[in-house]
Design brief:
Elements (H helix, E strand, L loop, with lengths): L3 E10 L2 E11 L4 E5 L6 H8 L7 E6 L2 E2 L5 H7 L1 E4 L11 H7 L10 H11 L1 H5 L10 H14 L4 E5 L7 H18 L2 E6 L2 H7 L2 E6 L2 E7 H6 L1 H8 L3
The structure holds adenosine-5'-triphosphate.
Amino acid sequence: MSILEIKGLSVSYGAIKALEGIDLRIEEGEIVSLLGANGAGKTTALRAISRLLPIQGGDILFQGKSITQVPVHGVVSLGIAHVPEGRGVFPSLTVQENLKLGTWANKRKSAIPDLRQEVYRIFPRLEERKTQLAGTLSGGEQQMLALGRAMMTDCRVMLLDEPSMGLSPLFVKEVFRVIKEINATKGTTILLVEQNANMALKIAHRGYVLETGNIVLEGTSKDLAHDPRVKEAYLGHQ
Ligand SMILES: Nc1ncnc2c1ncn2[C@@H]1O[C@H](COP(=O)(O)OP(=O)(O)OP(=O)(O)O)[C@@H](O)[C@H]1O
């Protein structure tokens, strides 16, 4: 059974059809990338899975069970954490207060100290800056904090929306390294929305390509990286 399965998912904004019946399947422990140009519907797909948007058709299954009737906070409690584009950290709270907010839906309260220790192991910079206000962190550090906060929910699945957006090349590399580490050490399943197809395909096991609301290609990252259509549209001429 797939940990997350999306079947015929349709989402519209009024008359605009953002997703026109997409199918997507993610196995436990995988990193799956969702690639596509601006406006393809990538953010919409993540927001629909998190129940932040109403859906017009189809189904979303977590461990084989439909979650389309589950409220937003229920989705987090099930073990699905969403790191939105732009990170969504609380600028006037400290690093440690932001991390604590990640624990509200955590059903295993006794696991919180270990989770915090793990976050600080993966992100030593956050421990160094735990009393600093999140709004004064650099963009890359805020992205780390957003990932750390998602880890604090004790999630099984992370939905990551353009984690490399707006970061310097050094931080882009660091963010992808950390995503790979979270997946490898904790077994967290990751659905990664990215415009940086090059990097995304390097760390993901499989990928899907979304174009104007439809999945037009899917395959292993290796196959996608060699596909002439992906090369032409998303990887530049290499
Ligand atoms: N709140 C909204 N109201 C109306 N249309 C919207 C809304 N949000 C998104 N859309 C439209 O839905 C389509 C898909 O948008 P979405 O943000 O999912 O794309 P995306 O692939 O994430 O793009 P980007 O890479 O630019 O973030 C676009 O045509 C967008 O203009």
